[in-house]
Write a structure and sequence with these properties.
- The chain is an alpha+beta fold.
- The chain folds into 3 domains: 96 residues, Rossmann fold (3-Layer(aba) Sandwich), CATH 3.40.50.20; 64 residues, ATP-grasp fold, A domain (Dna Ligase, domain 1), CATH 3.30.1490.20; 105 residues, D-amino Acid Aminotransferase, Chain A, domain 1 (2-Layer Sandwich), CATH 3.30.470.
- It has 10 helices and 16 strands.
- Strands 14-13-12-15-16 form a 5-stranded antiparallel beta sheet, sandwiched between helices.
- α1 crosses α9 and α2 packs antiparallel against α3.
- The two termini are 29 Å apart.
Length: 305
């Protein structure tokens, strides 16, 4: 099987591990900078070109699409889908997960536990917006933020009003969420592949910080999750249409609440914390769901019927 890993940087840990895992299992694998791909969108023979040649020998695609380039990255993945090529995560799932508001609305509709979340447009709605999420302290998030950037903890209503007014003055789209105090600066990253949580780690914020992102100095360790947390993670990924996802959960007094679902979760932190070969599990999943496997299965069913 020839696997294309869509990544901006072949030296990133996650990209390198996926390459190693693919080669270890006897597959051919290449890294493609998807921003340098260009497409021929035609009804009969859609194609993708890269460095002056047509990519017509790819069997499977692993998208590693960053939040800042989601629009073009999803378009490239969609083009591969039009060509009938298997993709680890579909373009629609990537697009849904990157739109924080849309993803929360989808999860809410299906009854997934979430922090109370407000969304508004006009400054004269701030006072009621703050009351709606339970008052201060509360969390204010930029819709376009990643890795903890653009996330602010407002400890008083006055501070919350000032921050919200500032963001709105910049025409930035924001979410206002209740602060889950009992989580105490920790969250759980559940790594979902298919219909299973294959690994989970607890992430803890460094002293004086409430954001638990590893990129912000947080620490991680192996953790055992509850059946409810496991079910919440798998259901969340499925609702958004993702085969592989990192589902971030907080332990609230009333049960697990989902903070975010990531369609390109990093491998370094989860592999270090759990000691598991997550990259290998991803390649194994591709093998099991590849078209040759499906065709072989169909032939076997025909022969035995």
């Amino acid at each position: 099987m020839k696997i294309a890993i869509l990544s901006r940087n072949k030296h990133l840990y996650s990209t390198r591990r996926l390459l190693e895992a693919a080669h270890a299992r006897g597959h051919s694998a290449i890294v493609i900078d998807f921003l340098r791909c260009y497409m021929n969108i035609t009804p009969h023979k859609p194609t993708i070109h890269f460095h002056g040649r047509e990519l017509n020998d790819i069997d499977s695609v692993i998208p590693r699409i960053g939040a800042s380039v989601s629009f073009y990255g999803a378009a490239v993945v969609r083009q591969f889908e039009m060509m009938g090529i298997q993709t680890l995560n579909k373009s629609v799932g990537i697009t849904r997960s990157r739109d924080k508001l849309h993803s929360l609305q989808m999860l809410s509709r299906k009854g997934i536990g979430l922090p109370i979340t407000g969304f508004a447009n006009r400054p004269d709605e701030i006072e009621d917006l703050i009351r709606m999420v339970g008052g201060a302290p509360l969390v204010i998030k930029l819709l376009s933020g990643t890795q903890g950037i653009g996330v602010v903890l407002a400890e008083t209503e006055q501070a919350a009003t000032s921050v919200i007014e500032a963001f709105m003055g910049l025409k930035a789209n924001i979410l206002v969420q209740e602060y889950i105090e009992e989580a105490k600066g920790t969250d759980i990253r559940c790594f979902v592949i298919g219909n299973k949580v294959v690994a989970a780690m607890e992430r803890k914020a460094r002293a004086g910080e409430f954001r638990s992102n590893l990129h912000r100095g947080g620490s991680s360790k192996l953790i055992k999750i509850t059946p409810e947390e496991r079910s919440t993670a798998v259901r969340s990924a499925k609702i958004l249409g993702l085969n592989v996802a990192g589902v971030d959960i907080l332990r609230a007094n009333h049960g697990p609440v989902v903070m975010e679902v990531n369609s390109s979760p990093g491998l370094e932190g989860i592999e270090a914390a759990t000691g598991k070969d997550i990259a290998g599990m991803i390649i194994d999943f591709l093998e099991k769901t590849s078209k040759p496997t499906l065709i072989k299965s169909v032939k076997q069913q025909v022969n035995t019927s």
